[in-house]
Amino acid sequence: MKKWKYLSMTALLGSTLLIGACGGETSGEGTNSGNGMEQTENGEAQLTGSVSGDGSSTVAPITEALVEEYKAVQPNVQVSVGVSGTGGGFEKFIAGETDFSNASREMKEEEARALEEAGIEFTKFEIAYDGITVVVNAENDWAKNLTIEQLKEIWIEDGKAKKWSDIDPSWPDEEIVYYAPGTDSGTFDYFDEVVLEGEDLVRSAQLSEDDNVIVQGVASDPYAIGFFGYAYYLENKDRLKAVKVNGVEPTREAIEKGEYTPLSRPLFVFVNNAKIKDSEAFYDFMKFLLENAGDMAEAVGYIRLPEEKYEEGLKKLDAIK
């Protein structure tokens, strides 16, 4: 996974992060082993513990960047974030291996059922908006605007190799090269739901849970096409072109207003309620995340929620505690 640069974010948030995080400190002992308070050399109480998460590569830029900022405020709390895709993250969450799970789609019924069977109560938090962005190579000067029907024609398996000229006779008589998120990805699931409508994705597509692999693939082939979260396009817009969908360009404004349909979606973090109750460190990190997710979402290329949604999230978090 690409390492993001945080210098601009630090300048953006400044002392706001310090104030927000200090509000989450507590003098009580956490009931989880290794989660609580310890005395520093100058006699001040310092929060300690560990927090683990996994899941969506789309959500990861937000949570990874927040982890970096959180280190400056709570250096004795170790927070780790894996990237195995939304589905892979839920598998670890269901197994009780993680405290939180990043997701770029809603939880499936079978996943919720598995959590219930495992005796795990959870809470869902929205943290940002995203727009799945369809991208082509920088040299592609023909596929500037695609309808949902054309996307279906391009991406649904029909038993034959497809050329760009099959979509529009005026386009190159060259085979389409496909790059897409892996099947454990929430982005794949969302695209499957709103574009493929349950039909099989083209078998020749090269799949990866790492969106940077898709970036590299599309950037290196003039006849390639791919899709992933909006932030990855912004980070690589000098190498790729974003395709309009139904005449609408993916922009912050279009995604926020719901005009970029049907590829706009919310992004989530799911938490294990029992681990919030047992761990002061986990509670403090989640409070920090919800207080600063909007600023960080904007900093890494996503779209913040209305402020009242973050306030609702903080109330939900306190209700768990």
UniProtKB/TrEMBL annotation:
<comment type="function">
    <text>Involved in the system for phosphate transport across the cytoplasmic membrane.</text>
</comment>
<comment type="subunit">
    <text>The complex is composed of two ATP-binding proteins (PstB), two transmembrane proteins (PstC and PstA) and a solute-binding protein (PstS).</text>
</comment>
<protein>
    <recommendedName>
        <fullName>Phosphate-binding protein</fullName>
    </recommendedName>
</protein>
<dbReference type="GO" id="GO:0006817">
    <property type="term" value="P:phosphate ion transport"/>
</dbReference>
<dbReference type="InterPro" id="IPR024370">
    <property type="entry name" value="PBP_domain"/>
</dbReference>
<dbReference type="GO" id="GO:0042301">
    <property type="term" value="F:phosphate ion binding"/>
</dbReference>
<keyword id="KW-0592">Phosphate transport</keyword>
<dbReference type="Pfam" id="PF12849">
    <property type="entry name" value="PBP_like_2"/>
</dbReference>
<dbReference type="GO" id="GO:0005886">
    <property type="term" value="C:plasma membrane"/>
</dbReference>
<feature type="signal peptide">
    <location>
        <begin position="1"/>
        <end position="20"/>
    </location>
</feature>
<comment type="similarity">
    <text>Belongs to the PstS family.</text>
</comment>
<keyword id="KW-0472">Membrane</keyword>
<dbReference type="InterPro" id="IPR050811">
    <property type="entry name" value="Phosphate_ABC_transporter"/>
</dbReference>
<keyword id="KW-0449">Lipoprotein</keyword>
<feature type="domain" description="PBP">
    <location>
        <begin position="42"/>
        <end position="291"/>
    </location>
</feature>
<comment type="function">
    <text>Part of the ABC transporter complex PstSACB involved in phosphate import.</text>
</comment>
<keyword id="KW-0813">Transport</keyword>
<keyword id="KW-1003">Cell membrane</keyword>
<keyword id="KW-0732">Signal</keyword>
<keyword id="KW-0564">Palmitate</keyword>
<dbReference type="InterPro" id="IPR011862">
    <property type="entry name" value="Phos-bd"/>
</dbReference>
